[in-house]
Structures are given as C-alpha cells and as structure tokens.
Design goal:
This protein is an alpha+beta fold and 325 residues long. 25% of the residues lie in helices and 17% in strands. The protein has 7 helices and 16 strands. It has a 5-stranded mixed beta sheet. The protein has a 5-stranded mixed beta sheet with strand order 6-7-11-10-15. The chain has a two-stranded antiparallel ribbon with strand order 1-2. A hairpin with a 6-residue loop joins strand 10 and strand 11. The chain starts with a strand and ends in a 10-residue tail after the last strand.
C-alpha cells in the first residue's frame, strides 16, 4: 500500500517509485473543444450585452439633450434656440481653445472652432447640459471625423431637426443671402401640431452634417428664407443603406456602420420623450419624392446643409414625424 510523505507526494509500496498521473492527448483535445464551444456561445452574448449597454447610454444622452432644449424654451418664451455668434474659447473640442481668437476667420473662411451656429448647435444649450461628453455617441468614434480636430464640430452623433428650430447666419455682416432661416413653424414649441410625434433629435452617423438638413424657400427676400424639412424618403434611404459612387443603393441590408444599433435609430420628440424606431419605420413615416414635391434637391441624399429651392415644398397629407399637417 502506498503512503503519504511529509511533502504530500503519494508513493508506492516500493521504495523510490513515484506514482504519476497525466492527461492524455484525447482528454486535452476534449477540454479545448469544450472551451471553444463555450467561447462561441458566450462571445456573441457579451457583444450583444455591450451593444445593449451602448444603446441604453445613447438613449439616455439623447433624452437629456432633448430635455435641455425644452428647458431652453422655458427660458426663451417658448422659442427654439437658433443662435449665431463668435465666442472666444467656446470650442467643443477643448484642445482647440488655445487657438488665438480671429473674428475674421470665425465668420469668414474658418477654422470655425469658435463659431456658434447650427453646425455647433450643441453650444446653444450648453448652459443647460454643462457637459460636452453628453453629446458623444457611445457607439461612434467621433474623433475619426476631420471637423472635430479642425473646427471642433461634433459630427456622427445626434442631429437636431433644423426645420423646427430655424437657423441664423448673422455673425458675418457681409452675408446678405439667407441670413435669417426662419422655421416654417415659426420657431415656437407651441406651434408644433404633433408634439408627441414630431421629431426633434435623431441619431445620424454622418461625417459632414450634425442636423437634419432643410429646404429654403427661395421665392422671398434675399436675406430672409423659410426653412422646411428635407423630408424625402429616397434622400434619407441613402443614409442607411450601402451606396456606390453614383449614390445608388447597392444592398437591401442596412449598413451597420451608419446604423450601429441593429437596424434601429433613436429619436427624440418635441414633448420630451425618446424612443427607438426601426429604419423601416423612419422611412415609412417620411414622404416619398412624389408625396413631398420640391423644385430641386441635392443630387445625392440629403446633402450637407440647407438647399435653396424655387419655392416651398408641396404635400397633400399629414406626416406627423416631420410635423407636416
């Protein structure tokens, strides 16, 4: 019979002989296979949990931004923000705040890190959010977009519905055309017809624009235009689906890089609530080019800003998401 030595080694009944036990090759392969199977099962679960956490964080951010806009309205006689100014040290990218202030550059040809207009609309409500990171989308590397490092403009995150707020271009006194871009709703929250359905903010992963672009009615005075939503289904579809160099949709599968959360985007509404909408529902709630007619529009998608048309758009039925009654 064996005995246990002081060092805890099991020995045989024959002196000098040690009993050893090792895994066989088959046993090792079985263990490795079990680990591989568990990894294959668990890794997608972990990835889904990570995506769900980012989605929850994004909804929270967006809701707080929407509520900050409502707080602004409460202090501004129910008006949406639409400021335009040049303020030294106001860059959203703090790395650029050491740049010397140059008014001519700010209002003329850039860089625009100190400009406070619709390309930096987050500054409009900064007194209410008091946090630049709140505007960062948790699933998007905003630093990949050149406007962040050049102009301090935060793209690829949340986009404001500029047709409801309107915009100004009054910082540059030499600019006459389109200085006043008045919302077709008048810029007042009380003028919204469908507050629980009208979109105020949306997720928009785009490196060139951080607001929902608008059509400007070009039939009026040169310095004062009326802004209408660029609510055309065909134009928005190219923001969600893969396209070729000619802006033709090449696949019916939504581009995950443009829509990070499993074919869904988060929308915030004028009454303060935020919820998830499928891309299909978003497009279904947007009129087609035949249902929302304009004299001209960008050649590809929604463009990167405002588009001056020959007159106001024409539609014949309500589209509540765009507050078209």
């Amino acid at each position: 019979m064996g005995s246990r030595t002081g060092c805890g080694i099991l020995t045989s009944m024959f002196p000098g002989e040690i009993m050893k036990r090792a895994f066989t090759l088959i046993e090792l392969l079985v263990v490795i296979a079990i680990i591989a199977i568990l990894a294959a099962i668990l890794f997608p679960v972990f990835a889904q949990a990570k995506t769900a956490a980012k989605k929850a964080a994004s909804i929270s951010n967006q809701k707080q931004i929407g509520l900050a806009i409502i707080q602004y309205q409460a202090d501004a006689d129910d008006l949406f923000p639409r400021n335009d100014d040049c303020v030294a040290g106001s860059s959203l990218n703090s790395d650029l705040n050491s740049t010397p202030f140059n008014l001519g550059a700010c209002i003329g040809g850039g860089p625009y890190m100190y400009r406070m207009n619709h390309y930096a609309w987050q500054k409009w409500i900064m007194p209410y959010t008091k946090s630049v990171p709140l505007f960062f989308h948790p699933a998007v590397d905003y630093k990949q977009f050149p406007n962040w490092s050049n102009n301090g403009e935060l793209m690829g995150s949340y986009a404001i519905n500029l047709a409801l707020t309107g915009a100004l271009n009054v910082a540059n006194p030499a600019t006459v055309n389109n200085r006043y871009r008045d919302s077709w709703r008048g810029g007042s929250a009380t003028a919204i017809v469908f507050p629980a359905q009208a979109m105020l903010l949306m997720e928009l992963v785009d490196p060139t624009v951080n607001f929902a672009p608008v059509f400007l009615d070009g039939s009026g005075a040169a310095d004062r235009k009326t802004a209408y939503p660029m609510a055309i289904r065909e134009a928005w579809a190219v923001k969600f689906y893969p396209t070729d160099s000619s802006c033709n949709i090449t696949s019916n599968t939504i581009d995950a890089a443009r829509v990070p959360f499993n074919n869904n985007i988060n929308l915030s509404y004028c009454d303060g609530h935020t919820k998830t909408s499928s891309v299909g529902a978003f497009l279904g709630n947007t009129p087609t080019a035949a249902q929302y007619q304009v004299s001209s529009r960008p050649a590809c998608g929604i463009g990167t800003g405002s588009w001056t048309a020959g007159g106001k758009p024409v539609w014949t039925q309500p589209w509540p998401m765009w507050d078209l009654d």
